[in-house]
Amino acid sequence: MDEQQPARRPGGRAARVGAAVHQAVTDLLSERGYGKFTVGDVAARAGVADSSIYRRWGSLEILLSDVVLTRLNARSPMPDTGSLAGDLRTYAANVAREITGPDGLALLRLAVALSSNGQQGLQALDDLLADRARQLQSMLDRAIERGEQALDALDVLDHVMAPMYIRVLFGIGPLTPEYVDNLVDRLL
Amino acid sequence: MDEQQPARRPGGRAARVGAAVHQAVTDLLSERGYGKFTVGDVAARAGVADSSIYRRWGSLEILLSDVVLTRLNARSPMPDTGSLAGDLRTYAANVAREITGPDGLALLRLAVALSSNGQQGLQALDDLLADRARQLQSMLDRAIERGEQALDALDVLDHVMAPMYIRVLFGIGPLTPEYVDNLVDRLL
What burial letters (b/e) apply to A57-83, b meaning 16+ CB within 10 Å? Predict the structure, then answer.
């Protein structure tokens, strides 16, 4: 590590560079798709040097994982409405909004491309999945404590998230509020 | 079209070239992944000229769609066991075997990458999905004619195929026969 920069201050140059680089990745993903751009393309779009990106992220794959983690995590806080049905409906609606938004498909495809099953597998995506599963299980555990139905996070993955993900990935129909609510109702 | 080849005979040179090119694509997908190889790489691996590939398929994306269509279609004939539960269990087991096989993940990722939602969208993948949905609906319609439960092909997509696809794409657990049967049982 031959770091020669001054110490980073939150909200300072490092934060501005981070935001510009994330935006450049999101734009390039939407315009060209995964595998069709380089660190040099990201740097040029963000107005920074290639070396700044390599120094901070190490590789294009690590940068891409960071973008997926940030975008898909930040937008779906776990709801706490007081009932299992309310929590699951709100959570499902949040996921639906996130993956049908302007960058949703690109982020979902990127998550698939980066998942550690492949030859470019990265621990970061596994961590994302594990982290989300824990948050979801906490929400489900609160319902059990209230004496409501006991569900496992994998049941929610299989019967609420997976159908929405696959429909978005393959472009099958819109995710209407009725459709999303119906997925939750079938599970309960 | 300035086709200058002699007419193709089934089982002749054209068939051998087709098989060699499909195998080269499958190998390159497993080794490098989508977006990491060119028509030139496929041609070199298959021992044919680039121009042979362009003349027959037109582009790398059309060739890739042809491979997905051939591989994922040919391996899952629709069962006809005499009962809805038997048909669905057999169908689900076939899909599970196909997508957990040596090239399954690569083909599933390729289907996601090529689906017409993206900037490189191709009609061929839409046709594949529509064709599979029709075959599945025919199987479900036979059950209705026998007086069994009425199901829609999209119910099967949402609650049997989507969970298996997402678990393979994100590397979550093995698809055990018990897990696959349980997906069918929950739907029925």
Answer: beebbbbbbbbbbebbeeebeebeeee
